[in-house]
Structures are given as C-alpha cells and as structure tokens.
Amino acid sequence: MLYNWKMSDPTRPARIGFLLTQLGTLAAELFAAKTRELGITPAEAGVLRIVGRQAGINQRELAERLGLAPSRMVPLIDSLQASGLVIRSRSATDRRNQELQLTEQGQELLANLRAVAEEQEAAIAEGLDPADRAHLYELLLRLSAARGLDSDVHPGYRS
Known about the structure:
The chain is mainly α.
C-alpha cells in the first residue's frame, strides 16, 4: 500500500530506512527462493560470484572480503567443492594458500545466477521507468559508498 503523503510534509517522517528494509527483505527472500531452486544458498551464490570475478583468490582473502571467520569459510568451500562447483589448488607462490577457481559447472551456475539476479532486479524495480531505475541505482550506490560498503558483499553472508 502506498502512503498518501508528500516527502515535503514536515508532519510525517520520510521512513527511508523502513522502506529500504522492506525492499531489502523482499529482495533477499526472492533471491533465497531462486538460489534454493538452483541447489545452493545465498552465501554460496556470493562466494561463486566473487570467485568468478577473482579467479585464484585464496580462502583467507575471500573470508576477509565476506567478513567471515576463516573457520566458517572452510565448510562453505567444502560444500561447493563437493558439489563440483569450485576447485582448490595450492598457490604456486605461497604453498600455504589454497587458491579457488570455478569449475565449468560452477561457471554455468554463475551464469544462471546472473539471470536470477536480473529477474529479481526486474521484479523489485517493476513500476519504475528506465530513467527512474538508473537514478535509484545511482542514489543507492552513493549511499553504500558513503558508508564504506562493498557493493559485491551482502552483510547477510556473515550470519
């Protein structure tokens, strides 16, 4: 339901945080449902996306990027490896490090995840014309950047 008031009405708070939370929750629920259909969790999807963009990233760097304890990263990577989506290999430059890469199956799943993300974005932005979508995107990027948020890392991965 849309509220019948104007942003300039000084008697009503803007409720930006509340509305962002509503939309964020809806977006997360839609994405979780779609990733379940693909047989993975949203956190696994996030790992696949980052490994797909940074082939050879090591587990420690990935854990730091996601804000996870390295001990929590191990079972996540174990699960992706057991599913045939990620491979670990010893670093040629530092034998203590395990470098991560997507398998062919992992790359195919990542392509499917991109399609899912585009469907989710279309559902969330339904009702906005292309100019409004672009403007909303720019505003959200500015807000995220001003708070030092990584646009590739969802804070929900930490839970």
